[in-house]
Amino acid sequence: MPSAETSPLLNSNGNHHDPESSCDADPKKRGIVWGALTALFAAALVLIFGFHDEFANTFGPLLGLVPTDPALAALFILDRAPYHLDLPILVRGLYRNNVSAVDLAHTMPAHVDIPRLRKGKVGGFFWSTYVQCPNPKLTGEDFLNATWRVRDTLEQIDVSKLLIEKYPETFKLALSAADIQSAIGSGKIASLLGVEGSETLLPCCANTTPLAFDMSPSTHTCHNAFADSCGFEPGIIPLHHGLSPLGYTLVEEMNRLGVLVDLSHTSDKTAKDALKHSKAPVIWSHSSARAVHNVPRNGENQTDAVVMVNFAPFFVATPGNATVAAVADHVDHIASVAGKAHVGIGSDYDGIGDVPVGLEDVSTYPALIAELYRRGWNKYELGGLTGGNLLRILHKAEEVSHKLRATGALPRYDIYEKRTDL
Ligand SMILES: *[C@@H]1O[C@H](CO)[C@@H](O)[C@H](O)[C@H]1NC(C)=O
Ligand SMILES: *[C@@H]1O[C@H](CO)[C@@H](O)[C@H](O)[C@H]1NC(C)=O
Ligand SMILES: *[C@@H]1O[C@H](CO)[C@@H](O)[C@H](O)[C@H]1NC(C)=O
Ligand SMILES: *[C@@H]1O[C@H](CO)[C@@H](O)[C@H](O)[C@H]1NC(C)=O
């Protein structure tokens, strides 16, 4: 049983039950109880500090003290953290969306299965629905022609929901910050849905996907009618020079719906436009720091947001140099520029082919936490990194949504200017 202190996800909505507040008000009785507790505490301190680290590692956690060994400290602190995982695309690729054939209870190909999620102390993740960029030859330059992208996205959402339902003792669908806290509180892995690429909405309206945490307009590696993408390699030619007029509308509609704006795949200009325009904080669900390794997918520093660091070796370091320490460098850099409250862990497991040395799959997250602990991150900062920061953003986005609705913000009915059928 984790101490409540180590679980920022459980604490932040004030659910924390303080035993003192329900205590008998009789001052004498309280004095005796306190005396006994103080004596016990003092005895424990003597035991812990009077003996070796090994002793502290074993018994310290019982008193809420972080073990001195970074590896043990990581397991202690890393209670339940959310990430960004591409499991649904693996189910599509390897199992033709046949959820019956997927056995998450045992070793799966690639990076994710239940035993490894549990070993890595994963508290939740965005079930990321990824589909490939449409061929511009098929969509046409104006993105008007229908492609398989919407169908495939709906299939990916379906696969996610079916897998979540298949393992009800492990996963729980989470559509709000409160859902996440309740899932984690009941020992389940909070399952958030995230769509990669707002072009999956096209050429329709922004309001057809009632998902909690869509990743739109996370234009994947291609532009769409809403926004410019950052591409994969430098040099992609911009189309709208940031958000298109419809993109601005989409941001407003997402704010109204309480859907998080994810900027991981956007161009710098799109990100800047969205940051300026969004009334709610935004996230980069799986990006790293360009100052540490200069690729377009890595975000520039901005103000109120969380950047969730990606582990793809290509984004992390020069070939052969992607290690736990290199990933920790990205975390440290974002923290030094934006503050520790603005970093999270994205990882992108099952969405990346190669992995850093020491971070091979979802069971290895504690290695990163241990490395950061060694570098001086304390348990509160690590609690933020591994969930608290993202949860804060979600709460704020929900507040914005409530406020907008309460003040009469209406759904947007804007029509893409290139449409001729409406
Ligand atoms: C789906 O997988 C199950 C279990 O492996 C198998 O029995 C079934 O035939 C598969 N269905 C299809 C349509 O492939
Ligand atoms: C898009 O659809 C229209 C109408 O069906 C068709 O005439 C046009 O050739 C299509 N464009 C592309 C690029 O496929
Ligand atoms: C990033 O932070 C540095 C230092 O605070 C600042 O000079 C720079 O303008 C920031 N970049 C962006 C894109 O905000
Ligand atoms: C690490 O990167 C350097 C240059 O950036 C390169 O020379 C070296 O070979 C790389 N290390 C490994 C283990 O590949």
UniProtKB/TrEMBL annotation:
<keyword id="KW-0472">Membrane</keyword>
<keyword id="KW-1133">Transmembrane helix</keyword>
<dbReference type="GO" id="GO:0046872">
    <property type="term" value="F:metal ion binding"/>
</dbReference>
<dbReference type="GO" id="GO:0006508">
    <property type="term" value="P:proteolysis"/>
</dbReference>
<keyword id="KW-0645">Protease</keyword>
<feature type="transmembrane region" description="Helical">
    <location>
        <begin position="32"/>
        <end position="52"/>
    </location>
</feature>
<keyword id="KW-0224">Dipeptidase</keyword>
<keyword id="KW-0378">Hydrolase</keyword>
<keyword id="KW-0479">Metal-binding</keyword>
<dbReference type="GO" id="GO:0070573">
    <property type="term" value="F:metallodipeptidase activity"/>
</dbReference>
<feature type="compositionally biased region" description="Polar residues">
    <location>
        <begin position="1"/>
        <end position="14"/>
    </location>
</feature>
<dbReference type="Pfam" id="PF01244">
    <property type="entry name" value="Peptidase_M19"/>
</dbReference>
<dbReference type="InterPro" id="IPR008257">
    <property type="entry name" value="Pept_M19"/>
</dbReference>
<comment type="similarity">
    <text>Belongs to the metallo-dependent hydrolases superfamily. Peptidase M19 family.</text>
</comment>
<keyword id="KW-0482">Metalloprotease</keyword>
<protein>
    <recommendedName>
        <fullName>Dipeptidase</fullName>
        <ecNumber>3.4.13.19</ecNumber>
    </recommendedName>
</protein>
<feature type="region of interest" description="Disordered">
    <location>
        <begin position="1"/>
        <end position="24"/>
    </location>
</feature>
<keyword id="KW-0812">Transmembrane</keyword>
<dbReference type="InterPro" id="IPR032466">
    <property type="entry name" value="Metal_Hydrolase"/>
</dbReference>
<feature type="compositionally biased region" description="Basic and acidic residues">
    <location>
        <begin position="15"/>
        <end position="24"/>
    </location>
</feature>
<keyword id="KW-0862">Zinc</keyword>
